[in-house]
Amino acid sequence: MANNQGPQGTNDPAGSTQMFRAFVDDAPQGRQATPAASSSGPRIGLIVGIIAAVVVVAAVAWLALG
Fold it and tell me: In the predicted model, is pLDDT for residue 57 greater than 60?
């Protein structure tokens, strides 16, 4: 087992954080652009769903009052 402690015998809590940041910084650039491109899809679907719901409620109200 390796001795990961410093000269004073204290553990470096930032060591794993630094390794994680290095890992994230090495991520491919194509993967980071994907969430930005796909975020517009669900938003458009939500808008279309709301418009469809308003149309259905208006049609039901028109039939009920007519």
Answer: yes
Name residue, tokens 């279309």.
48
Closest to 15 in 3D by CA, of 7, 24, 5: 5
Both tokens of residue 3? 């001795």
pTM given for the model: 0.39
Q: Is 52 exposed, middle or buried (0-12, 13-18, 19+ CB in 10 A)?
A: exposed
Is residue 15 within 8 A of residue 4, CB to CB? The reply is yes
Phi, psi (degrees; rounded to nearest 5) at 3: -90, 105
Q: Which two tokens stand for residue 4?
A: 């990961």
What is the pLDDT averaged over residues 15-31?
Answer: 74
Average pLDDT, the chain: 75
- Interaxial angle between packed helices 40-65 and 29-38, expressed in degrees from 0 to 180 and rounded to the nearest 10: 10
